[in-house]
Amino acid sequence: MTRDPDGCAHWAVALHGFIDDELDAANTLAFESHLATCPDCRAEVERFMSLRRTIGQDGVAWPVPEHVRAQVVDAVSRAVPQPKRDARRPTAQVLGFVRSWSFIPSAGALAASLFLVLAVPRQHPSLQDEIVSSHVRSLLVDHLTDVQTSDRHTVKPWFNGKANVSPPVVDLAAQGFPLVGGRLDYIAGQPVPVIVYRRNGHVINVFVWPAREPAAQSYSERGYNMVWWTSNDLTFCAVSDVADEDLLQLRQDFLRSRTQ
Question: How are beta strands 190-199 and 202-210 bridged, if at all?
Fold first, then answer.
């Protein structure tokens, strides 16, 4: 089989989530269905699984390259706060231990990784990144909508009691943005209503929150465009792979329809 270099690009996130057992049931089933027809992804999964089995063996050790040791020492030195005079001994002992590494046994690698994970502040994904990830997930599996209908009078009451806000739902079919339906997503630690439109076959997800601090009116992340706006104590974010001008038009039509 000839490999399409871009054919599996959108499965990359799901692949690592599958290996780490972090996918939900729907995404797991979708990825397993993809594996059944894609020998390239099956080989990639097996490669990572084999590596994991090798690392997990007792008594396995690898020589530590000098540049790796230097990088780890530097990371530990920067991650650990400067200690008081009477508390310097534990930090010095940790750094001395790392500098003395000659081999990394499996248990030692795990312990060192755990230490670095705990010591170095985690980089939490930005709100924009969470929104794009949610948009991509909605396209990967059959969870674009929880309520699928073009009737706004059906979509709007469906959200009642399911989130902190009941979003306005407007019919924009005449403006070239037919309503597909709605779903409930989970962004920034809270349930978030999502209104789903289409534009020339492309999906547009509109996320809605209670009003928050002002955001940039437009933004791009990983090849997807986002347009933000606030109205009546609510914040909206439309995300899609359509042109930025289309999202700006949707925002304008959405605001105009609410005032009519």
Answer: antiparallel
**Do residues 152 and 115 make contact, with C-beta atoms less than 8 angstroms apart?**
no
pLDDT-based confidence at residue 74 (cuts at 50, 70, 90): low
Q: Are 180 and 202 in contact (CB under 8 A)?
A: no
The whole-angstrom distance between residue 37's C-alpha and the CA centroid of its chain comes to: 25
Instruction: Return the structure tokens found at 185.
Output: 């997503």
Instruction: Indicate the burial class of 195 (C-beta count within 10 angstroms; 0-12, 13-18, 19 or more).
Output: buried
Q: Hey, which residues does 194 pair with through a beta bridge? A: 183, 207
Residue 100 tokens read as 């003395």
Angstrom distances, CA of residue 119 to CA of 42, 80, 113, 154, 169: 35, 7, 10, 50, 46
Measured CA to CA in angstroms, residue 236 lies from 123, 127, 197, 215 at distances of 25, 13, 14, 10
Per residue in 12-46, pLDDT (tens digit) is 777 877 887 777 777 778 888 888 888 888 888 88
Both tokens assigned to 70: 């230097």
Write the CB contacts of 164 (distance below 8 Å, at least 6 apart in sequence): 190, 191, 209, 210
